[in-house]
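Page 37, top half.
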Amino acid sequence: MTLISNDNVFDKQNRDISHLIYLDNNATTHEHESVIESMIHHLKSLNSFGNPSSSHLIGIQARYLVDEAREQVRMSINASDSNEIIFTSGGTESNNLAIHGILKANFNKFQHIVTSPFEHPSVINIIKYLQNSNKNIQVSFVQVNSNGIIDLEHFRQLLKPETKLVTIMHSNNEIGSIQPIEEIVRLCRQYGSSDLVIHSDASQSMGKIAIDVSNLNIDLLTICSHKFHGPKGVGALYVRQGIKLETILYGAQHERGLRPGTENVLAIIGLGKACQLISNKYLLNKRIEQMKRTRDRLYQGLINQFNQYDANVIIRNGNEKCLSNTLSLTFHGINAKQLVNKLNDRLAFSTGSACHEDTQHHSISTTLQAIGLPYKLARSTIRLSTSYMTTDDEIDQAIILITNAVKEQLSSLIDEY
């Protein structure tokens, strides 16, 4: 499956990019054909273009489609009630609403937050903002090991009576590590206060792992549509019944008063369809198997190539505690950004999180810092992420492209000396 990784190479002639191999599926995914069809059908319909808040028939039909999608999202995570699903503009807004909404409800009280050092910027930055604007907020960061898994004993020690919010991502977008959320929740229920709220950003996990909020016993869960073959610009926040959030936007009483503004019916329909597709356990498992198979083929192919070349390379993941589609690779001595640019007309991948790549000041990601990777190795790290659409032929081509590009860069370094 093909897309482009760098806007700088897209010229006015709209060059043909059909040959590009796309291995950046943790950044975004291509919409599933059924998602596209459902959205086109809605766009062409004259019966459901109305405002879902309107009381006439066209508005009622639009409301029906929104409610249908809400039920599809509910089923995909096994929530107990569709009213627990709040539609948002995506993962960033869902994270902001979850964190800001909980803390705002107790603004004048001392509040302690426990989080990890490698959360998405939409988690880290809202916490920083709230901490800077409210002296009653204290933040603790749980330690993680070199594989990106949090230290459960250290986490337990951080819990205190004043801890009001725990926010730990379900899986990491850069290195693919899956956190022990069930154990985290168990510790919170055992050692935390009765009003402790637990949030997890599952943006990267949906469509790659079966998510069951009832089994997780979690309070808040972030969903991001475009990470699992739905449209961009839409997401959802699961809010367990009984959890009280304050709105962070002001307007009318849409989405239980938590998210004012006319619903984006078209995008919500697409999200609903994407969720419906992964609600089928058989189809989800087939998708996971395909991602794992191509990821493992990529892993083994690169191992074989660089063992022959005797290159110093670290390949993370490829085990049961990481996403089935993600590989993080560190090539000693190469510049990862140069490698991405070298291959950007043939292979789309990234140096890490796409959410960090546009920053003007070069710095390593918080994830790579958290797992203790030195700066020189961090700047030599790339991320490859497959999807169920990825083919064996694309994997085999990618192995050759990466191997040759790394060899070329390392050879040029040797020649300089």
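Page 37, bottom half:
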Amino acid sequence: MLDFLVQPDIEQYCYAMSSHESDILHSLAQATREQTRYPDNMSGSLVGQTLKLLASVSGSKMVLEIGMFTGYAALSMAEGLPDDGIVYCCETNPRVIELGKAFFEQSPHGHKIHVLFGNAKDMIPTINCPLDMVFIDADKKAYPFYLEMVLPMLKKGGLIVIDDALWKGNVLAPKQDRDIIMAGLNRYIAERDDLDNVLLPVRHGINIIRKK
């Protein structure tokens, strides 16, 4: 299992040469590292800034995040949305929701984040509007199900970003269930004629998909 898909010094250079996270995102990241058991579940700054940029340049207004954790990615995307934009976030852990909300309340973009407490499979059908962008970062074994669930809700030209798409490099020689699922999902996406995608080695891999 690889801890880094690129050399650590290269990743640090990319961070230094990219737009930096806002002060409130920095504070949220620090609190996540100090107060949660699995801080690595948080999207890093490079992923967060990528999501913010994608949300902004795509003109997205309605965004769905599957797997919010403490809300670092959610707040990153909210920063890239117009004032009337919405980020719907599915999360099942009340403790991380509480932590995230404390920081949302301090941000001028926090009002854009709507937390849906419960299993994403139950929460997604309650969203009654077309989506411009979806970020999937939850149970890896359910990724294929989530993809099929959100595709009909996604506008033409809309984006889906799948996190951990390279699963720490294990997709090269998949052995465990999660490895096999992620490798199969990447191939499935690449072979679909109705989707454009690019798979990038950012952190543990992000697959950026556009619905034709």
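Margin note: The domain at 44-211 is CATH 3.40.50.150 (Rossmann fold).
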